[in-house]
Amino acid sequence: MLKAPNTIIISGTGRNVGKTTYAMQLIKQYAAEQPIAIKISSHSHNQTQNLIPIKVNSDFGIWEQAIVSDFKDSSKMLKAGASKVFYIEAKDAYLPQVLEILSTIIDFNKRIIIESAAIRRYIQPEQFILIYSDDNSEIKEQNKDIEKYITSRINFHIS
Predict the structure, then answer these.
(1) 69, exposed or middle or buried, with CB in 10 Å at 0-12, 13-18, 19+?
(2) What is the DSSP letter of 132?
(3) CA dist list (Å): 131 to 59, 70, 137, 150
(4) Which of 9, 106, 121, 133 lies 20 to 30 Å (CA to CA) from residue 143?
(5) From CA 49, how far away is CA 93, in angstroms rounded?
(6) DSSP state of 140
């Protein structure tokens, strides 16, 4: 388990509950610490144009979002003020390999904001936050094993 004492992991009960919007607020809140942001998706979005490939193979992809360019969550995080943003596509089983690579380019003692539930199995963060909505307040079945690690549950209303 990788210890990341200044990392905040954000998970959610589903799509459109406010995970990225909340991540953007945290990025702004910790601007003085020049936070690094990481967006992890377990499925392909085919939206890697304008991203710099770090490591891409048949198991996973790691890209850096280096320019504010479009509607992608990683671009929104960069626009919010993150010093670096990484976008990752990886099935949960490949997250240990992804972390090995990230550990060579990121200091996990710095302020890091990660949007992913599954990464909590491999990182011990400062906080593990669950974002939910009135319509969708239950943690996903595949994440029940990490529910015990949640430090805050936030009903985040997007206005």
Answers:
(1) middle
(2) E
(3) 28, 24, 8, 10
(4) 106
(5) 25
(6) P
Q: What's the token pair of residue 5?
A: 């004492």
Q: Are strands 36-41 and 112-115 parallel, antiparallel or unpaired?
A: parallel
Tens-place pLDDT, residues 28-56: 999 999 999 999 998 765 666 778 999 99
> Which architecture characterizes domain 2-155 according to CATH?
3-Layer(aba) Sandwich (3.40)
User: Which ranges of the chain have pLDDT less than 50?
Assistant: none
Please state, in angstroms and rounded to a whole number, the distance separating the CA atoms of residues 126 and 88.
Answer: 21
Answer positive or negative: Cα dihedral of 144, 5, 95, 78. positive
| 3-class secondary structure, 64 | strand
Question: How many Å apart are CA 123 and CA 102, to the nearest integer?
Answer: 12
Q: Quick one: pLDDT at residue 79?
A: 86
Lookup: tokens for 29 = 């809140």
Q: Are 7 and 126 in contact (CB under 8 A)?
A: yes
pTM, two decimals, is 0.91
